[in-house]
Amino acid sequence: MKDDLLELLWEGLLETLYMVFWSSLFALAIGIVLGVTLVVTEKGGILEAPKLNKAIGTVINGVRSLPLIILIVLLLPLSRLIVGTSLGPTAAIVSLSIGAAPFLGRIIENSLKEVSAGKIEAAKSVGATPFTIIFRVLIPEALPALVRGITIGIIGITEFTAVAGAIGAGGLGSLAIRFGYQRFREDVLIATVIVIILLVQIIQWSGDSIAKSINKKRYKFE
């Protein structure tokens, strides 16, 4: 193990965590809007609007069909416009957020669709408004599934940062490519893989724990 290994890993880990945190936050904000809109505007939904639903679905499918590295390249001008540069972790957040948002949107849509139609009808029968149904019925009832889905999304973003590292985003992915592969540093390559695996495991464990905690509280009060 060379003297600079821990320093390189620490720097790469901090950059990856920085990208994952902000990309997840922005992607989740967009994804929630997309997912909820898809559910409530579908045929028979509480705010039925088939044309809007189809338009949003088409955009989501279009973005999701693009390979991430191509999407990142296409969004480089936008990154430069927003943050003033197309290189580094901050620039990558723009591309990662936009790339992950449709993925999270679909996950959130599927989670919300697990809510029993009977509970929605019951809320309608007592005069609940669409927004009340969304925030008092749909989201609370789907919360455990949402947490698990969002966990998968964050893990996906963690993997995306490794891809973004190939074009100058920094982080553990860039470290593995620049030092591990291009400079033939097997110690860096192996250590980077181990750190990424551990990071993914921690995220998965945290998500599962939160979902289980929500379920326990729900069963306690039911």
From TrEMBL:
It is found in: Cell membrane. PANTHER family: ABC TRANSPORTER PERMEASE (PTHR30450), D-METHIONINE TRANSPORT SYSTEM PERMEASE PROTEIN METI-RELATED (PTHR30450:SF1). GO terms for biological process: D-methionine transmembrane transport. The chain crosses the membrane at residues 20-41, 62-83, 89-108, 120-139, 145-176, 188-207. Residues 13-207 form the ABC transmembrane type-1 domain. It comes from the Bacteria. It is a multi-pass membrane protein. The keyword Nucleotide-binding does not apply. Keywords: Cell membrane, Membrane, Transmembrane, Transmembrane helix, Transport. The keyword Metal-binding does not apply. This is ABC transporter permease subunit.
